[in-house]
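Notes from the 1:1 (GR / supervisor)

We went over the backlog. Supervisor wanted to see one worked example end to end before approving the batch request, so GR pasted a single chain during the call. The sequence is below; no edits were made to it. Supervisor asked that the structure be written out right there so they could see what the output format looks like.
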Amino acid sequence: MGGTAPEGGWLRDQVCEGLRDRIITGRLKPGDRLVERDVAEDFGVSRVPVREAIRILIGEGFLQTVSQRRIVVREMTRQDVENLFDMREALEVLAVRRAAERRTPTELDTLARLLARARTATDSGGPELLSRANAAFHTQIVRMSRNDLLMTALESLEGRLRWLFQQVDDPGPLWEEHRLLYEAIAAADADAAADHALHHVRHYREVAVRLLFAG
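Structure output shown during the call:
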């Protein structure tokens, strides 16, 4: 029994992360079919971790079952995106407020480094690097809230948020909004931090909807 843990756990996570990255970066597109046998050969694993990874990605909203033997990459509808932003507005504003109230010098140092990394990614213009950097910045803020329930709720959205970060056509204003968030958190100004977070989410909602569904 001890030999089954890596197959069911570590390998599953590797396949899940690999497939998720391919969807987020567009290498796997909406409607593309996933065949367990082919995915297993691609990752050099058995079908067991592939099956479990697919189940996770269905739960995250990246894949969908269209028939008993057909699993495809799910297309994000406008309602999906609106629902995601509703969740972000409710949860991230709270996370930012708590982060401003509870932050420590060490946590602020980490957040400052992630902000600088996002600036570098913004200047480089690489969408994949930028999405990872921005997601890491937001993840750190959630950690700083020190609210386990909040962290669990937002972790389930992390992959889809990374996907959304790749839809930005002008990352400069996005980074500037992150800078304002950082400054409010560093100043322990919870009200200002929450206001910046609300503006940030609503502005980003408008950008994403325009880019994804215009026309």
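Supervisor's comment: Confidence is low (pLDDT under 50) at residues 1-6.
Batch request approved.
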